Amino acid sequence: MALFDLPRAELERYLPDVAEPADLDAFWARTLQEARTHDLALRVEPVDTGLRLVEVFDVSFAGFGGQPIKAWLTVPAHRSGPLPAVVEYNGYGGGRGLPQGHLAFAAAGYASLFMDTRGQGSQWGDGGGTPDLAGSGPAHPGFLTRGLERPEDHYYRRVFTDAVRAVEAVRALDLVDPARVAVAGASQGGLIALAVAGLVPDLVGVMADVPFGCHFARAVEITDTTPYAEVTKYLAVHRDRAEQTFRTLSYVDGVNLGRRATAPLLSSVALMDTICPPSTVYAAFKHYGTRAGTTPDKTLEVYEFNNHEGGGGHQLARQLPWLHQNMAAAAPVAEAIR
């Protein structure tokens, strides 16, 4: 795939005006307040996976509407004291799969919580175990157009709420240091991580790779790949719903929620990415933290000749020392809190 978006020099100057609803903060405050009226219902059960250097737990907790969300918790078998933690979110269409596939952060010394994504898990990977118990109006196959009629009904309102509750769940564990929690994800997982960064004020770090769901209006205009093509195909049928569609999506846009973030960010972009166009990732990066008073530290790793795989293992190799540094910097604060 050749370059198809703006040249790199223009991308580095790119700062688009991304529409944001006036009631965005109130919308999400109401949403999370309602979610917290439900008991967290945290359940943690050990699982024998055959792995000897880590311990694995099957976790469930109450997400949006009090509905059960599953996750894998993986921790080093030999540990002392409360651990810093990483909450990880998955890519589009995948589920939590098997715990044997989520070992990197535990191997690096962290408690690792990998959240299942409601309703997903049947497009690739090893499956998921969390149904989406809420319905929606007419939608194109996939998840992006579910509930486009109203922001209150949109699929990602539920998912982002689940993701915030996942952070609350990991912080409720005795083996986790609640003052040292980071979030991570790629593609859809990167979007979810950006959203959580804007909704949870005291994270240690955010790792959002080739994030999906940023600057929807531009993405739909310049790429015809899924998931963005779901919106195009939906509007090709529902010709009178464009204004409402983009209004609804503005409530879950990673640019708008990421503006509110306060935690340091390590992100990545691939300049030949046809799934999450580079300009949309730059939009999220440039706007990240700009509503936080003081803009947090942020770094964007650029992979010039890669498609949506981004940096792959090279990005993980970049993440680990960055994560160690940020967790170490937060350690005195954590000690003071305790």
What is the CATH third-level topology name? Rossmann fold
> pLDDT average, as an integer?
94
pLDDT < 50 stretches = none
Helix segment tally: 11
Distance between the termini: 52 Å
What is the helix/strand order?
Answer: HHEEEEHEHEHEHHHHEHEH
The structural class is: alpha/beta
Main sheet overview? 9 strands, mixed
Tertiary shape: globular
Care to count the β-strands?
9
Q: How many structural units, i.e. domains?
A: 1
* Text of the CATH class: Alpha Beta
Q: How helical, in percent, are the residues?
A: 25-40%
Keywords: Hydrolase
Protein name: Cephalosporin-C deacetylase
GO molecular function: carboxylic ester hydrolase activity; serine-type endopeptidase activity
InterPro entries: AB_hydrolase_fold, AXE1_dom, CE7, Pept_S9_AS
What's the gist of this structure?
With 338 residues, the chain is an alpha/beta fold. 34% of the residues lie in helices and 19% in strands. The protein has a single domain, classed as Rossmann fold, CATH 3.40.50.
Protein described:
- The active site is at 187 (nucleophile), 273 (charge relay system), 308 (charge relay system).
- It holds the Pfam family AXE1.
- One of its GO terms (molecular function) is carboxylic ester hydrolase activity.
- Residues 1-325 form the Acetyl xylan esterase domain.
- Keywords: Hydrolase.
- With 338 residues, this protein is an alpha/beta fold.
- It has 11 helices and 9 strands.
- The protein has one domain: 3-Layer(aba) Sandwich (Rossmann fold), CATH 3.40.50.1820.
- The longest helix has 25 residues, at 313-337.
- The protein starts with 7 loop residues before the first helix and ends with a helix.
- The mean pLDDT is 94.
- Helix 4 crosses helix 5.
- It is globular and about 55 Å long.
- Strands 1-2-3-5-4-6-7-8-9 form a 9-stranded mixed sheet.
